[in-house]
Write a structure and sequence with these properties.
Elements lengths: L8 E7 L6 H11 L18 H6 L6 E7 L2 E7 L7 H7 L5 E7 L6 H12 L3 E7 L8 H14 L4 H4 L3 E5 L4 E3 L10 H10 L12 E3 L2 E5 L3 E10 L1 E3 L3 E5 L6 E4 L2 E6 L2 E4 L2 E3 L3 E5 L9 E3 L17 E6 L15 H14 L4 E4 L5 E6 L2 H13 L4 E4 L2 E2 L2 E3 L2 E14 L3 H10 L3 E8 L2 E9 H4 L2 H8 L5 E11 L10 E5 L3 E2 L2 H7 L4 E2 L6 E2 L4 E5 L5 E3 L29 H7 L4 E5 L4 E5 L4 H12 L1
Parallel strand pairs: 1-3, 1-4, 4-5, 5-6, 29-34
Antiparallel strand pairs: 2-3, 6-7, 8-10, 8-18, 9-10, 10-17, 11-16, 12-13, 12-18, 14-15, 14-17, 19-21, 19-22, 19-23, 20-21, 22-35, 24-25, 25-27, 25-28, 26-27, 29-33, 30-32, 31-33, 35-36
Helix pairs in contact: 9-14
Length: 608
């Protein structure tokens, strides 16, 4: 193979909202570029390599791959479309020279698309627009094209950016068309548009090797791997290089491996050349945003500013009666090391010690982001207690300020009243409203606190048809008390096995979270009380057995099925004095203070 020159490289990021089809599109590009043998079986959603990504159907970590098309090498970076993972998206902008915007032919550009596109346009990147799912009966491709152009105008796109090529097709069926009248057979028109519209990487003429670390990976064999676009020069295995970070002394290292990303594999490469996206190992410590260079005197390269974390949660050691039964990793040291490791590779998560040896603080962009980390931990065998998210406040001019977000909603017309009432309860202010084809779009400004638990309320209000997106806006003065949960809980007073007889009586008081035959303990939340106070109950009480039997009175007792919480739902549901107990086998809700008498004493102290 001839040596790779920068003018034959194209570096491209894919931007899309959740579920608009970008991962499926990448799968098709890989298939049609001949990246796989004919007999190779390819999983659907091939780039979603994390187990959770396949289950949730979303992309969490930004990942890169490459395809060969003729004499061109196209590096493709697949980016997340969920607001909580925005930090992953922002740093990708430093690696690429163009973006492909994937838009659903029915839903059009959504809020998160807007946020990422704004970052891409501000970075001067040229877009290629792919209107996906045009084979669906409700597709509106012409309207979507107008919607995208309006969005470009709104985001102040440059002249070249505004003249972006539009392609129409179906990632699922594997075709793209340059115009709606064309017959689409394959992805060839899309490959052509990428090569023509995305410029080759802008590299420096210098022979000195320089690269900004935009992503960090980990391998059990070589340790930390810094991933980024080579800005100048070239690098080979065995070369001495320097790790440069602002305000610290350069650290010398030696390149132990150079990696290239092709199709779905990571391959050893002889060298990394200017313009290409490569991985480099050779340093024990290496963080995102650092510069790797062949000279000690090189300046550190500028890095993208990332939206600040807006919510904070505590992780603590499981101290409940069932601790250590279902997981192997239960110590504070194991939990601390795991969270530090997560914060290193995930730049929008921040880790802090609290001063308590068994409790740690994690700052993030949203509850879903933390739920993903907790879910990974439970799959790795951890047991941990997680608190409800609280917002990170700031003192500005001596006054408390909290984060506010712009919220975009699309709901069925008949659900608008309920949604507006819910927003008002959560201190949200509707800024604009428009209706189209039986659906209403709302834009509102709302405190981040008001968003906690809102997604699940929206699903109930709209029978699962509501779509929401949100972006960080600014810090504003504190908006006062917000009650996102208007119910109390049913709290177990006893330890033991839950009994059908007891639960039958308890379910007349509220909704159950546990079924019969489950192990419960004092302080564990077993249900919801429709009133605002907490009610102590005994789910372990058995029916008193006698020798006398009244004819017809001993009926089989059936219970209403218990409500089962997903991890995100549990984290957003609990009150400040409650915790979620997470183990590899269970998700339980409990009070912070398990003992009933002690809890009453604490409540008295707090109110006095």
């Amino acid at each position: 193979m001839t040596a790779l020159s920068p003018d034959r490289i194209r570096n491209l990021a894919i931007i899309a909202h959740v579920d608009h089809g970008k991962t499926t599109l990448v799968d098709q590009l890989l298939k049609q570029s001949g990246s796989f043998r004919e007999n190779q079986v390819l999983d659907d959603r091939a780039m979603d390599s994390m187990a959770q990504e396949r289950e949730r159907g979303i992309t969490i970590k930004a990942k890169n791959t490459s395809v060969r098309w003729g004499e061109y090498l196209i590096n493709i970076v697949d980016t997340p479309g969920h607001a909580d993972f925005g930090g992953e998206v922002e740093r990708v902008m430093k690696m690429v020279d163009g973006v492909m915007l994937v838009v659903d032919a029915y839903e059009g550009p959504q809020a998160q698309t807007r946020f990422v596109l704004q970052k891409a346009l501000a970075a001067g990147l040229n877009p290629v627009v792919f209107v996906n799912k045009i084979d669906r009966p409700n597709a509106r491709p012409e309207e979507m094209q107008d919607g995208v152009l309006e969005l470009f105008l709104e985001l102040e796109a440059g002249e070249d950016q505004f003249d972006a090529p539009f392609l129409y097709g179906s990632a699922k069926e594997g075709f793209a068309r340059a115009s709606l009248e064309d017959e689409g057979l394959d992805m060839e028109p899309l490959f052509e548009a990428i090569v023509e519209s995305v410029p080759p990487p802008n590299v420096e003429a210098s022979d000195e090797f320089r690269m900004l670390v935009s992503n960090v990976d980990w391998s059990d064999y070589v340790g930390r791997i810094g991933i980024g676009k080579v800005l100048s020069g070239r690098v080979k295995v065995g070369d001495p290089i320097w790790r440069i970070k602002e305000d610290t002394n350069p650290v010398r290292g030696k390149v132990s491996k150079v990696f290239e990303y092709s199709a779905l594999s990571t391959n050893d490469a002889a060298e990394g050349v200017a313009g290409n996206i490569v991985g480099i190992s050779g340093f024990e410590e290496l963080d995102i945003g650092e510069t790797l260079a062949s000279s000690e005197d090189s300046e550190s390269l500028p890095f993208v500013e990332i939206d600040p974390p807006t919510v904070m949660m505590t992780f603590s050691v499981n101290d409940g009666p069932m601790a250590g039964r279902e997981g192997e990793r239960v110590t504070s040291r194991e939990i601390r090391d795991r969270l530090i490791r997560e914060a290193r590779t995930n730049i929008s998560i921040k880790f802090e010690d609290t001063g308590e040896s068994t409790e740690f603080r994690v700052n993030a962009r949203g509850a879903m982001q933390v739920a993903v980390v907790v879910e990974e931990m439970r799959r790795e065998g951890f047991e941990v207690l997680v608190s409800r998210p609280t917002v990170i406040k700031k003192k500005i001019n001596g006054r408390s300020h909290e984060p506010f977000e712009t919220l975009y909603l699309e709901v069925p017309d008949e659900a608008v009243g309920g949604c507006m009432q819910s927003l008002a309860n959560r201190k949200g202010v509707v800024e604009s409203i428009s209706a189209n084809r039986g659906r209403t779009q709302l834009e509102a400004t709302i405190p981040t606190r008001g968003l906690i638990g809102f997604e699940f309320e929206l699903l109930n209000l709209t029978s699962g048809e509501g779509i929401m997106s949100h972006l960080f806006k600014e810090y504003r003065p504190d908006s006062g008390d917000i009650r996102t949960r208007r119910s109390g809980t049913l709290v177990s007073m006893e330890k033991g096995e839950s009994m059908t007889y007891a639960l039958r009586n308890i379910e007349t008081r509220g909704k159950l979270f546990v079924g019969a035959g489950e192990e419960v303990y004092e302080g564990m939340i077993v249900g919801e009380n429709p009133r605002t106070e907490d009610l102590p109950v005994n789910p372990t009480k058995a029916k008193h057995v006698t020798n006398h039997r009244a004819a017809g009175s001993d009926k089989t007792e059936s219970l209403i099925p218990a409500i089962k919480f997903s991890l995100e739902r549990a984290i957003e549901y609990i009150a400040p004095d409650e915790l979620v107990e997470v183990t590899p086998k269970s998700i339980r809700l409990r009070k912070r203070i398990l003992d009933f008498t002690e809890r009453k004493r604490d409540a008295k102290r707090s109110s006095s």
